[in-house]
Amino acid sequence: MSITFADLPLRPETQAALAEHGFISPFPIQEMVLPIALGDGDVIGQAKTGTGKTLAFGIPLIERVIAPLDSEWADLAAKGLPQVLVVVPTRELCVQVTKDIDELTGNRGIRTLAVYGGRAFEPQIEALNSGVEIVVGTPGRLLDLYRQGQLKLKEVSRVVLDEADEMLDLGFLPDVEKIFTSTPNRAQTMLFSATMPGDIIALARRFMNQPIHIRTQDNEDEGAVVSRIKQHVIRAHALDKIEMLARILQADGRGPTIVFCRTKRTCQKTSDDLEERGFRAASIHGDLGQGAREKALNDFKAGKSDVLVATDVAARGIDIDGITHVINYQCPEDEKTYVHRIGRTARAGADGISVTFVDWDDLARWKMIDTALVLGLGEPEETYSSSEHLYQMLNIPAGSNGRITKAKPAARAEKIVAPERTAKPAVEKTPRNRTRTKKFTS
């Protein structure tokens, strides 16, 4: 018999917040991590993105925080100094984790702050000076504030490292080690990662105290690919890709879609091309300012756009249910990137569809991905935007083309044809017209 959150030894306020937001039964990663984490043990959690890791570490953190509305607050020596630190690799994930924790902390007055680059220092410093219990941040900005003396870590008793393998890929590991050494009163450390490279294992051995390694993965998902995703791979010509993409976006049942590109330039160009063709597209990549990135993500979540074109780094932290299609416009670099990309769909028990475009130059790369993940998809079939099997494979309505046409407003057409203008003779307009008429008739 599966347990519910009500069965766990949690504060009444936490129970009430979980029930209010519809959290009844824990996911597998939560069910396995919570008993250990609530007992103050160090945990290494290994699970795919989108399996509920945030609540797995968020609930134990919230339980141990002494909040302004708690009876223990009066006895707290260092009021307002951070007690918990959550380190994440990207800005988008920072915002997402902060939001998830905020949902469960309001009834106790716990103050949570998101700290990341691309934003001014002053509001973040002001919030720290006002008092914060939980800080969620990216390594670079956390260290900047620490070195300025604005972020005080001496009272931090619990540290969480989320998406550790991505931190390694982005070169943040030295910053993470500095953060660990700057938290001398750390009583509990939790590390979460989809994969466990050697450097991450070495980090865990150095800074964790007899951690328990928890790995959740279905037997049928041994290759780390979600089994509910219907995967398609096609060999596409570079000049025909945008046309093919536009037709796929008109497939029956197609909902919110993420299109992945390897480069920032291709990402922006693809988004612009789709907008020009009539699609509600937005882009998110490293060349955009933080405000533009947040607006693109918020518009996508709110349904103002239904196609998000993203690079791999920018897509970290995009945790949105209801994604029906993931399209790899450019072939992923390796099998880890492939798994991360297509894992944006088929979340929370839903089904999903992934389509991967493979250029002629990428055939060797795709073969390595296919072999490493034991996908059995074989060599991609040569496909064009006019290929009949493309329409059948993805349920694209017959007659669809690469452009969504919009009807012109009727009022605008009436304005162009104004009958009053043609009623007056042209020769009466100016003296020059009359002079010209005399000259031609003489």
Please provide a brief summary of the model.
With 442 residues, the protein is an alpha/beta fold. The protein is 39% helix and 14% strand.
Write down the CATH class of the largest domain: Alpha Beta
Provide the number of structural domains. Answer: 3
Molecular shape: elongated
CATH architectural type of the largest domain? 3-Layer(aba) Sandwich
Q: Would you tell me which CATH topology of the largest domain applies?
A: Rossmann fold
Structure description:
The chain contains 19 helices and 14 strands. Mean pLDDT is 86; it is low at 219-223 and 407-442. It has 3 domains: 5-217, P-loop containing nucleotide triphosphate hydrolases (Rossmann fold); 222-394, P-loop containing nucleotide triphosphate hydrolases (Rossmann fold); 414-441, no CATH class. With 442 residues, it is α/β, with parallel strands linked by helices. The radius of gyration is 28 Å and the shape is elongated.
